[in-house]
Amino acid sequence: MTREERLRSEDMGDYFRVAADSRDLNYDKFVAKGEVATEAEESYTSHNTNILDVDGTVKKILTTDYVQEQLASWKK
User: Fold this and answer.
1) Strand intervals (E) in 5-70
2) Virtual CA dihedral for 9, 1, 51, 67, nearest 10 degrees?
3) What's the CA gap between 62 and 53, in Å, rounded?
4) pTM, whole model, 2 decimals?
5) pLDDT at residue 42 above 70?
6) Going by C-beta distance under 8 Å and a sequence separation of 6 or more, which residues neighbour residue 62?
7) Vertex 53: Cα angle to 48 and 57 (nearest 5)
8) Contact between 9 and 17 (Cβ < 8 Å)
């Protein structure tokens, strides 16, 4: 997630919800007058988040409803 996307994102706990970019093309707001913030302090990257190993990835995937439903259907 870029700094621009992070500025209009909401931390939902397990994921970020990023709102659509609804800026208009009136560049005076951004350049001449400096009224609108266009970037967060930092991007959201693999350098500032928890990187999952294989076991962590499997555990995360197993928490999804879709995977749980598929596993349940195979057991029938």
Assistant:
1) 9-11, 16-18
2) 70
3) 14
4) 0.39
5) yes
6) 68
7) 100
8) yes
CA separation, residue 44 to residues 14, 21, 23, 52, 59 (Å): 14, 17, 21, 15, 22
The secondary structure of residue 56, as a DSSP letter, is H
What does the alpha-carbon distance between residue 26 and residue 5 come to, in Å, rounded to a whole number? 19
What is the four-CA torsion angle of 57, 61, 63, 69, rounded to 10 degrees? Answer: -160
Q: What is the pLDDT of residues 10-38, one digit of tens each?
A: 888 888 898 887 766 666 665 655 555 55
